[in-house]
Amino acid sequence: MAKDYKPRIADRMLSDKLEAMGAVLIEGPKGCGKTTTAEQQARSVLYMDDPENAAQYRQMAETNIRSLLEGATPRLIDEWQTMPKFWDAIRFEVDHRDDDGQFILTGSAVPPESSEIHHTGTGRYGWLTMRPMSLWESGESNGCVSMEELFRSPEQVAGTCTMSLAQLAFVVCRGGWPKSISKKTEKAALMQAIEYYEAITRSDISRVDRIHRDEERARRLMRSYARHQGTQTTIPTILADIAVNEAEEISSVTVSSYLDALRKIFVIEDMSAWNPNLRSKTAIRTSDTRYFVDSSIACAALGLGPMDLVNDLNTFGLLFETLCVRDLRVYADALGGKVYHFRDKYGLECDAVVHLRNGSYGLIEIKLGGDTLIEEGAKNLRSLSDKIDTTRMKAPTFKMLLIGTGKYAYRRTDGILVVPIGCLKN
After folding, report:
1. Which of 66, 98, 129 is the last residue in one of the domains?
2. pLDDT at residue 110, as a whole number
């Protein structure tokens, strides 16, 4: 095991997928720990971005790519997308070796459209999405409330959270980047997200598909996206938001191109809408909800630090929601589930719905804290739950208020759970 390596939830997921599939592709943003996680289980490694050997590897990939696949298994091909030919070569090798756990591929970008990829990989590849670390993985959550246990026995909820408002503001701005968590000072830890944001706007947003994109335009767009976290804001709205400071006319096609590039490098991860069976006919809004993959990117884009959030609780609440969505996605993945949002034409909303493969689901409202916001969230949960047609689908396994400020995890008299984010784990 690598020095100072902290086990991740993805470790167990990777192990399970290697037992079932010939190759596993780990995707996610740069710096989230993909390579480290893969290295723990790989028995040989090929680093495609090794500056001393990259040119040689590219030549070999063109003339004899199978030679690069030789080595003890599982064999890790790191940053495989720089040579898309690996995809079909590995698929072919998996077919002929007829054994599981042969290869691990890691990538921090979706490869460009390429004629070198001819097969989807169905039946040969498994997929694993990694994100920055959850609060449970980084040690800020004590994990006294397990989401897995909530799906088994939601009646039993108890715990105490010791995280202060100032600590919460810090982790929202710091994010879950492994390098930031190991830093000795808060200043150094906060710098990681700022430099990550700089790298995105200066080079990564253009490098992903070799299309030049303006750095300042990328900054304006990311600031706009940060302001609209947790909303179903449309492309025209974002366009209008950034067009004020544009020297020349910009189109919605251009905005979409920038956003697509951010998706390809896993910087933004929007949330799909949930479509339940309801008792009454209600038009359900199907637009995606806007989110960065980590709250720290939004903070960096807006130039905000922990004290800025403490002094502006409205903004704090929006960015706290982004952090919670990140953690819920990490925990849901471990359970084989997905996270959705709900909103109907009357404005009834649910911030997050964790839905498992067996049809079980939990309704979650995210609130920074305070009695008024908690009661508002509880009302939403009751209203949505009452609308669900339980003759056509299961009733929710649990209804939960996921909060930032609060000392205790407990069950209310109306059956709704109140759980501080500092108590939750997968």
Report:
1. 129
2. 81
